[in-house]
């Protein structure tokens, strides 16, 4: 499986299953997509503001739900393996991506595994074990959260500096060397980590050492 980042803005994610797994999937996608959760019952859990529809579609009716909602992704999160299989088949027939929560390891083509993610501003790190060990994914996520602390601020800082160097028509190779030097500078990271107000000035000093010019 190849990891990709997919923009779900304006898209629909259809979740079948209102248990704790369905709630977790709904929360995961509700930040960007329009999420609809279909289930005869719902767990006492946070669904992230997703629309919840109380219904119990059978294997034949799931196709109608998919046709009506036109989802980009369908999540099969019921406790009925046969129903999940029917949901998967209907989703594939409609050309939608599929995430089956009751399958682990080897996946069929067009399957989606939802990774554990760590976010710091514009920086996002995704961890997946292919569904074989969610516990390991959670553990690695906790470790990475510590490791990338401040990465979002570094991304924003170097993004702004890169744009300025481009505007000043700095030679591309020198520009790349300058930004790499900032990213690898312990001094810049120290100022970001301490919450000091001058990380940009320190970064500009690093760039000057590489380019010989602050412009």
User: How large is the count of helical segments?
Assistant: 8
Catalogue the unreliable spans.
Answer: none
Helix content: 40-55%
Strand tally is: 7
CATH superfamily of the largest domain: NAD(P)-binding Rossmann-like Domain
Largest sheet: 5 strands, parallel
Strand content: 15-25%
Please name the CATH architecture of the largest domain.
3-Layer(aba) Sandwich
Measure the end-to-end span. 44 Å
Order of helices and strands: EHEEHEHEEEHHHHH
Based on CA inertia axes, which overall geometry fits? elongated
Structural class: alpha/beta
Rg over alpha carbons: 23 Å
Tally of domains: 2
By CATH reckoning, the class of the largest domain would read Alpha Beta
Topology-level CATH name of the largest domain: Rossmann fold
* Strand order, sheet with most strands: 3-2-1-4-5
Mean pLDDT: 90
